[in-house]
């Protein structure tokens, strides 16, 4: 089966590269992926793979039944949305839409999944069970397309025994992959706090309730949420990236907005921390004569890789790519809405190397210069196909 997958990949590679370049040149923002969705369904039509649409509006569920009989149900997932970034790469297939770019590799994800679907479709006479192809919108934007697709009944008819996802990883060269069983990525919540006081002349601070001093004290005090409340063995980060107001150097503003992000790898302590954030912010504001409105927008849950299925997938990857091409990963405090799937179904989310072996730089994820190594596409499409076949064959 390994040899058959590799031979089919060689046959299909140029087509899948062209698909990737088309998607890259025609990016669409989260929950706006109408053209991408139509393009994906056109390719599934060419393969004669049945599918359902309408999940989170632009989401697609392809359904491939093995012809050797009943068996497991394995879901393979790829996201399709792009980011609001102006691409700075000089490419023949550079983004045609100014201000929108596939800077996180979702064009790679979607094309690899189409490649895997084409390979598996060619092998369906030798397969038992069902393979689901999940093409998902809106990974980059709350509440996350994964949660919306599931709410729309994504897996109502076909319940996956395992769901597998992959994500580009510039830190590894093309041809290599990385796995981590257990907790892998953090949850992600957005923090918005409005500090309100009494504005006035900066030369007469005693006539004001100083919001600048208030927000400064709050930023420092809020660091206690992680350092003095959450256990040291629970990875957590609370960072503030924006302090905003309409004012001038000699004016103490009436209101200041503080915005940040909270990430953690423990769902119980996640909500304990939310209460601490609210209490500290309001206490600091009240203690200085003002008040604070705290809005915590719940984001993606943490990504938990089921240890048993992830170790099996890692073993299969070593069989397919060789020991040297498969790495152990460390935890990441970044977030992924794949966590919604992992909360409900046994899941494996792994990394696909897209780096270069020479001095060429990828530019980094979410960068206007992000440039994935296209040699990764053959690995991405073949490994997904092999992992699905391996999972179907297991008791």
Task: Walk me through what this model shows.
The chain has 395 residues and is α/β, with parallel strands linked by helices. The chain folds into 2 domains: 2-185 and 302-393, Zn peptidases (Aminopeptidase); 187-297, Alpha-Beta Plaits. Helix content is 35%, strand content 25%. The chain has 10 helices and 16 strands. It has helices spanning 2-25, 34-47, 106-122, 145-151, 211-222, 224-227, 267-287, 307-321, 338-344, 376-393, and strands at 51-55, 59-65, 73-79, 130-136, 162-173, 177-179, 182-185, 187-196, 200-201, 236-244, 251-252, 255-264, 291-297, 303-305, 326-328, 347-355. The strands form 4 sheets. The chain has an 8-stranded mixed sheet. Strands 10-12-8-13 form a 4-stranded antiparallel sheet. It is elongated and about 80 Å long. The two termini are 18 Å apart. The model has no long low-confidence stretch (mean pLDDT 97).
Oligomer: single chain
Tally of discrete structural domains: 2
Number of strands: 16
Instruction: Determine the mean pLDDT.
Output: 97
- Unreliable spans are none
The count of helical stretches stands at 10
| Class based on secondary structure composition and strand pairing | alpha/beta
Strand content: 25-35%
What is the CATH level 1 assignment of the largest domain?
Alpha Beta
Reading side by side through the largest sheet, how are the strands ordered?
Answer: 1-2-4-3-5-16-6-15
Order of helices and strands: HHEEEHEHEEEEEHHEEEHEEHEHEH
For the termini, the CA-CA separation is 18 Å
- What do we call the CATH homologous superfamily of the largest domain? Zn peptidases
């Amino acid at each position: 089966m390994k040899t058959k997958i590799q031979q089919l990949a060689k046959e299909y590679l140029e087509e899948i590269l062209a698909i990737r370049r088309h998607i890259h040149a025609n990016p669409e923002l989260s929950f706006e992926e109408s053209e991408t969705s139509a393009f994906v369904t056109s390719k599934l039509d060419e393969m004669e793979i049945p599918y359902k649409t309408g999940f989170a509006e632009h989401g697609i569920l392809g359904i491939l039944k093995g012809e050797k009989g009943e068996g497991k149900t394995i879901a393979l997932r790829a996201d399709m949305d792009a980011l609001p970034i102006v691409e700075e790469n000089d490419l023949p297939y550079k983004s045609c839409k100014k201000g929108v770019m596939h800077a996180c590799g979702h064009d790679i994800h979607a094309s690899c999944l189409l490649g895997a679907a084409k390979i598996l479709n060619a092998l369906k006479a030798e397969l038992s069970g069902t393979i689901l192809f999940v093409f998902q919108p809106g990974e980059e934007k709350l509440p996350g397309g994964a949660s919306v697709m599931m709410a729309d009944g994504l897996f109502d008819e076909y319940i996956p025994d395992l769901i597998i996802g992959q994500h580009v990883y510039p830190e590894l060269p093309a041809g290599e992959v990385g796995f981590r069983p257990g907790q892998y990525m953090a949850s992600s919540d957005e923090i918005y706090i409005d500090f309100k006081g009494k504005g006035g002349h900066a030369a007469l601070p005693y006539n004001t309730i100083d919001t600048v001093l208030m927000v400064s004290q709050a930023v420092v005090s809020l660091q206690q949420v992680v350092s003095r409340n959450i256990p040291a063995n629970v990875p957590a980060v609370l960072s503030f990236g924006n302090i905003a107001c309409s004012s001038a150097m000699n004016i103490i503003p009436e209101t200041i907005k503080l915005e940040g992000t909270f990430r953690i790898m423990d769902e119980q302590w996640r909500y304990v921390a939310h209460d601490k954030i609210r209490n500290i912010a309001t206490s600091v504001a009240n203690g200085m004569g003002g008040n604070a409105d705290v809005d915590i927008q719940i984001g993606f849950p943490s990504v938990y890789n089921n240890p048993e299925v992830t170790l099996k997938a890692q073993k299969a990857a070593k069989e397919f790519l060789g020991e040297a091409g498969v790495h152990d990963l460390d935890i990441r405090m970044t977030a992924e809405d794949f966590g919604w799937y992992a909360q409900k179904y046994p899941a494996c989310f792994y990394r696909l190397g897209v780096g270069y072996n020479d001095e060429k730089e990828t530019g980094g994820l979410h960068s206007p210069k992000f440039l994935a190594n296209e040699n990764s596409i053959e690995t991405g499409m073949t490994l997904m196909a092999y992992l699905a076949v391996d999972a179907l064959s297991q008791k």
